[in-house]
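Appendix B. Chain record.
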Amino acid sequence: MLVLTLGGCGQQQTTSAAAAAGSPAALPTQQVRAVAEPQWDKMLLQNKGWLGADGIYSVALNGVEKSGEAGGKGTFLWFSDTIIGAIQDDSLQPDWEMVHNSVGYLQGNVPDPEKIKFHWRQDGKGKAASMFEPRTPKSQPGNYYWLGDGFFNHQKDSTIYIFAYLIKSLPGGVYPFEDIGVSLIALPKGSRPPFANQRQLDTPLFIPNSNGKGKVVFGVAVLANTVGAKAPKPDGYIYVYGVRGVNKELLVARVPDKAFEDFSQWRYWDGSTWGPDVHKAAALTSRVSNEMSVSFMEDGRVLASYQLDTNSPTIAIQTGQTPAGPFQPAKKMYETPEVYEDLDFYTYNAKAHPHLSKPGELLISYNVNSFDFIADIHKHPHHLRPRFISVKY
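Structure tokens predicted for this chain:
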């Protein structure tokens, strides 16, 4: 049986073989379900300054990616395209600006709008600017960053690493941009905005075409299987996931946490072993998101969470026996209602936040945007912000 809980309307759509056959037999109790989390939605409902964004990855500031563990030092969040400005009487004021990334800090582990603070930079003229600007040898003037996943590395002096997709503008078309590389941002222990002591590295984790199988981009999800992260069965490796080709095949690499910046030590799962050739990487599953998550369950298995085909209305999960699989077939958990609020709205890039989740649940965010962005940001000025659900298992 599949249950789709439609957020905002308080209804459930239920299907089963018995129901389809018209059988009067009682339906079994549903053990896995998804419910909307409006209190998390409202936490990001802002009217001044930071108004909304997409992206939204997060990490516990104590480095423990386990449910109920975020309360002490709080959570560091990072976003991609971000709207800065003011909304009055449900109207976006004319001096609004957009930057390509921003960050936030949440105290505790409950969705309190009074406990979250947002940050972006300002340029020399007082205009809003992205928190992270490309400064690696491969970057060119005009390039910018969208941010991928990251993690807290206990073995590298508590450095927080964030993958950053190098983007160039590509006018015309539905999506007027193109990713051209993957950088790595390293934030030393205790760093705070504007992160003056950040380091940026070019990486070999972007491949334009992998032996005819299509583009490969790593950094869409990170899983720290370490003692410091309180993983259930730690092995000391950091698992980094990537997507390949038009079918969005999920790939995985791993590297010892102590050697994270040494790309010669990265190894890629080829279906039977870990090897140095990324072109031999095996697909763990397919039809995943360009941004997603892989999280540990209490029993040591992993749960992949993503938007089916990146930007469909369907949020799916898959259970894996290990960080490299094998994965069970996908379960379609939730249909995003926002796509029906406006003809041009779409939803995308669902991912989980395990340390903000309750035991036996997984808090999952997804993004809302519009193909007619400029018109809709004025008609619906609050639409560009993450929404949340919980998958209860």
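Further analysis of this model is presented in Appendix C.
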